[in-house]
Design brief:
Layout: H1 3-22, H2 26-37, H3 43-49, H4 53-73
Helix pairs in contact: 1-4, 2-4, 3-4
Length: 82
């Protein structure tokens, strides 16, 4: 694939992901965005949201399905694995 084609594909994936994140409820968006920043642990994200780690894990789990569905609908299926 040519460089220009890769750049266009990357920008498209970014736009699809942004759409999917923007479509989430604000609390789900916060949960989904904080989790990768803090890697596998819910503790730092939970602390920032002032909730328990278990509640953060539950919110993350609940937020992931609408995110996946929006990505599927918007043509971002390849982002689900990455």
């Amino acid at each position: 694939m040519a460089v220009a084609s890769r750049i266009i594909a990357q920008e498209r994936r970014g736009a699809v992901y942004y759409q999917a994140i923007a479509a989430l409820d604000p609390i789900d968006r916060e949960t989904v965005l904080l989790r990768p920043i803090h890697q596998a642990s819910n503790d730092p994200a939970a602390s920032l949201m002032q909730i328990s780690p278990k509640a953060a894990a539950t919110r993350t789990s609940r937020a992931e399905e609408p995110l996946r569905e929006t990505l599927r609908r918007c043509g971002g299926k390849e982002l689900l694995d990455g």
